Every structure is written in C-alpha cells, then in structure tokens.
C-alpha cells in the first residue's frame, strides 16, 4: 500500500495517532490490553519502571520494563468497535513510517495479550477461575468489513455452532482461534475454552431487564453447545474481534480471563479485586517467558 491520505490515518499535531495519542517510540512489541482504564495502573504497578504514560479519552497507555522486557499496557474500553480502533492504530504505529508516509518493508508482528474479566456459562467452572480463550466466536459485525481467511478447522467448528445456536439473517457469527504458539506456552494455571463475544452487555448476552428478547432461546443453546468436548465457557465483549483483527493484520493474540461470575449458578466473586490481581500476576509471569 502506498501513502495513506490524512483523512484515513489521522494524526494529532504532535504526530501521534489520533485516538491512542501514541508515538511509535512509546509502544512496545509486547502489549497487554485491558478494558477498564483503571486496570492499566493495576498492571503497571508490577513493572520495574515506567518510561511512558499517555492518555486520551478511555485509552490509557503505560509502557515500561519488567527486567529487560519492554511491555505496554493499554486500555481499550468496552466492545468490538473499540478493538477496531486500538488494533488498527497499534498496527500502524509499528508498521507505518510516518516520515516517509509508507509502510515499512519489514512487518513487525506484535504480541497482544488481553487481561479481561468475564462471566462463565458452565456450572462446573468455579468463580475466580483463570481461562485462556482457545477460540473466540463473535456476534458483532466488525470483522465483516475486512477481507479475512479462516482455516478449515475454524470453519467446521463455526458451522457446528451455527447449527446448534440458530440465528436468523440479522446475526452472522464468526470464529477465530488464538495464536497457537502463545496457547502452547501456557501453564496449568489456565483452563481453556471457547469465548463468546457479544456486541452488548444486556440483550446480546441473554439478559432482560423487563423487555422481550428477539432470541430468547439462544443463551440456553450457548450453554449446551459441545463439539468434541469444546464448550462455550464464557461471554464477554472483545476477544473474538481481537482474534479476527490479529488474523487480518498478522499479529499474535491471546485472551486471558478471570471468571468473576457464574451465570449458570447466579454467583459472583467474593473478592473481584483479588481475583483480578491474581490474573494480572499470573498473566505477567506468562508474558515474561515469551
């Protein structure tokens, strides 16, 4: 691709990318994403030191070091639409030469790991468990604006899901797998499962606050989906979009979650802050080995 017009890649007056307000030298090749802006400091407090702190809107970035490893942690806010912004701007920060106004000859593949909170849908998984999303299934439509490729295994599993959890033509699920190299390096602190990514918190996740749902049966079907012992384990709002955009942009991505709620049992963590901190510490231990 040649030069990108200023209307398409918008830069601030200081040359930083528009939404994240970052300059290329302020971003590490290993990136942790969190939804909640307040969680950035919860992660970076474990850095040996922080060299950059940048904030614009809900996007807060801290870049620093643990030992000799440089890491950035950035808040994405909630939802797949924000993931679209964050992943595209992370991509150009590492792969586009802002002075020459063209993409660099050598592609830099980022390692992006999500530290997220999520709700479990299976009765036999304990609240506060740590989970790695082996697959992400998305119910949003962001990825359909991109040209992407699925593996045969992904398409087969997606077909099984669509058959089991039938949606009308208004919803067209998609599916991507996490980076296999990152998955293979996980220890037994993390169970694995399929994460369902919804484009909202209430009706899109089967909740009703007194109104009628258009697909009232879908949540129970999600709970009972099982294909060769692969089950939907949790529902949240970012993972599948992250995996899809990592596929399109050629980056490595893995989503790690702490399951603060069990919706099948109607229970919630007694100490969500402690459980989230456990995810952060275990996740940082994992990242330090990469």
Tell me the series of helices and strands, N- to C-terminal.
Answer: EHEEEHEEEEHEHEHEEHEEH
Please state the oligomeric state of the protein chains shown: single chain
β-strand number: 14
Radius of gyration: 19 Å
- What is the topology, as strand order, of the major beta sheet? 7-12-10-8-13
Question: Low-confidence parts, pLDDT < 50 over ≥5 residues?
Answer: none
The major beta sheet can be summarized as: 5 strands, mixed, barrel
Q: How much helix is in the residues? A: 25-40%
Distance between the termini: 31 Å
Structural class by helix and strand composition:
alpha/beta
- The percentage of residues in β strands lies in 25-35%
Shape: globular
The number of distinct helices, counting runs of at least 4 residues, comes to 7
Q: How much is the average pLDDT?
A: 95
Report on the architecture of this protein.
- The protein is an alpha/beta fold and 290 residues long.
- It is built from 7 helices and 14 strands.
- The strands form 2 sheets. It has a 5-stranded mixed barrel. It has a two-stranded antiparallel sheet with strand order 5-6.
- Helix 2 (80-95) runs parallel beside helix 6.
- The longest helix is centred in the N-terminal third of the chain and has 16 residues, at 80-95.
- The chain is globular and about 55 Å long.
- The two termini are 31 Å apart.
- The mean pLDDT is 95.
In short:
The protein has 290 residues and is an alpha/beta fold.
Features of the shown structure:
single chain, 290 residues, alpha/beta, five-stranded mixed barrel, two-stranded antiparallel ribbon, 14 strands, 26% helix
